[in-house]
Known about the structure:
The structure holds 2 protein chains of 2 kinds.
Chain A: H1 9-22, H2 30-39, H3 61-70, H4 76-79, H5 81-94, H6 97-108, E1 114-117, E2 133-137, E3 140-151, E4 158-164, E5 175-181, E6 187-192, E7 201-212, E8 216-217, H7 223-239, H8 249-259, H9 266-293, H10 301-324, H11 347-354, H12 364-375
Parallel strand pairs in A: 1-4
Antiparallel strand pairs in A: 2-3, 3-7, 4-5, 5-8, 6-7
Helix pairs in contact in A: 1-3, 5-6, 5-7, 7-10, 8-10, 9-10, 10-11, 10-12
Chain B: H1 2-26, H2 29-36, H3 44-52, H4 71-83, H5 90-104, H6 107-118, E1 124-127, E2 143-146, E3 151-161, E4 168-175, E5 178-185, E6 191-195, E7 205-218, H7 224-260, E8 262-263, E9 266-267, H8 272-301, H9 306-332, H10 343-353, H11 360-371
Parallel strand pairs in B: 1-4
Antiparallel strand pairs in B: 2-3, 3-7, 4-5, 5-7, 6-7, 8-9
Amino acid sequence: MTVTEPRTVTDVEDLARAVVARVDPTSSSREEFMGACFDAGLAWVHFPVGRGGLGLPGSMQSAADRVLQGAGGPDPFRQNPMGYGMAAPTILGHGSAALQERHLRPLYTAEELWCQLFSEPDAGSDLAGLATRAEKSGDEWIVTGQKVWTSLAHRARFALLLARTDPDLPKHRGLTYFVLDMEDPGVEVRPLRQMTGDAEFNEVYMTQARIPDSHRLGEVGQGWNVAMTTLMNERSAIGGGPAMEDTGPIAQAVSLWRTRPELRSPVLRDRLAALYERSEAIRLTGSRLRGGIGSKGPGAEGTIGKLVNAELNQEIYEFCIDMLGPEGALYGSYDTADETTAATLPLQRAFLRSRANTIEGGTSEVLRNVVAERLLGLPGDARNDKTVPWREVPRG
Amino acid sequence: MASSVAEAQQEREELRSMVRGLCEREVPLAQVRRLMETPAGDDPAVWRRLADLDLLGLVVPAEFGGSGGDLLTLVAAAEELGRGLVPGPFLGTVGLAATALQLSEDPAAQQAYLSRLVAGDLRATVVAQDQLGRWAPAAPTTTATSTGDGWALTGTSTHVVDAVGADLLLVAAQAAGGVGVFAVQTGAPGVQVEALSTMDLTRRQGRVVLDGASGVLVGSLDRGREVLERTGDVAVVLLGAMQIGVAQKLLELSVDYAKTRFQFGRPIGGFQGVKHRCADMMVRVEMARSAVLHAAAVADAGGSGLPRAASLAGSTASAAAVRTGSDAIQVHGGIGFTWESPVHLYYKRAVGDAALLGTVADHRDRYASIVLDD
Lengths: 396, 374
């Protein structure tokens, strides 16, 4: 059946079923299936018609995803995490019609992967202090600098880049946001080995890389505001946590509990029950807040999920290592694996990986500031860098 | 569907602000302080107002004078009563007794008690605590012996919420044929109710001693245990909602104080040591609220998932309220330790409530038995 003007969850499900009936995800190519989803407006149902959406509330996306992924379709977030979760809303919110037309579809089909060039060796939590320079030259910008902690840079075709265009303004006001072509000869990607042995992230060096002015997102000097769109989406993407009951890291811990009865103790049972309760409470909170904020987009509420899940993940894997006892001290191999997701890692590797959870995507310290300042209205920190030119801010 | 969910949500929010207005107008904290020093502990006029606004009969069917609403709606009202520390037998009468009567499937008992209860003319509670005050609906320590035309009940229960001042006790007792719920009038021979001297002066507990007291079986001995267990779970959800109200108020008091208390030339809420504590308080309250709302929705859906959801709600809400209380005292500093400050009143309520109808440890143990044990 066809739905001419979808309005309800049922309409969205009908549309998704029609796509699945027309292009079977189990027998057609990923590009073909995902392309059909995009054209049907099921990529991001809250995006406009023609841009992969239907102009519906974002809360209806899960209805489409259930049908599409239930029929064997891929998870678009996993296919292209930076692209689907962060680049797309940023391009939609701040890119020209031409950029939207050019990028959204191949981004959704994962024919073109994306990465995010934000953090720098000297700009972590203080992202707005970044030093990568972009200088205007005719219709182009010439970019030189170093970025770090870039996931997927070695496979990404495009990057979201935040660079300094005016060092004489206070730090937040001298930034501009660009789409960078990772195939530019001025871009070099080096893997960054981490404590787990893996290299999920990269360092990216830009030496006189060139960007057409038409690839700018937002106005010159407005880069910080544009970056907020990206970052709030990143936090809600990380912070959403498992949507289903009994999934995610807690499921790994429960599986350990079930499969290794010889390692159980009453003390461990109490700890695991408490962790299970927190996992459930934050899962329910994620559902409730997502429902509550609807199509208004991710607000600071997304930070609650990120904050809690990061610390909870660490405690869950700490529990697993404690339960394993002496066996927890083993580590299969420090060989670098190219692609990793925590759900498939051995527990010891997942344990080490979880140390990054409270740092990546906003440290827990910064997130507590966000909760306190944006949600509770408490005063900001004392700062001495907000009004002086970026050039004069002490560094080290 | 979506619009009716939104409408129901809208109605709950309207009810919430109505109840909050009532609490602030008729039982402001100064009045709570006066009432907590009185022997009765609450104001009959306020109880009457709650009845007039149909807050006592929100989930009771219309045939008994109620409005047949759902638990999610009652939770919104309960949260506000907790927030206001409103004294009165809401938990015992509405949370426990009305629930047990509704679940009993006993038309005679419902006819006799529910309408009066909804009208505010009957104060009641459920007695299922053991001699140490532990909520023990599955294995009551009170016994019921058949007297031919009725039952004689003997046993001691303590820490019975809202027993003092109750007209009617619905007593869990072990009979030869099973566990039953028995209606006992507090004025009758062989019934003794003593007030306990509690840390929280805004919620009263009593010790109930029955010595051959006359009781009328409510429902059947086949279903008594089931009725009592589900009654406990429903009441835990309402108690959780009251804990959320307490915790939310403690959070707001703390944030307001942190914004207006200056040290070192700045509001103390600008220092990370204070603001991060406040952030954690908010996160904890929101997580607990999610657990309580979820449990209410599960109860309304009527499935078998209520024990798991109620245990999650009970342990999460009680732990959150107690911790938010201790954090609130810390944020307030010295003033938070004084009798004059409102903080201790909420903190004591949180601590007292955390021991009713199952402790955090009890709830967690039951949760573990459901989700972990073989």
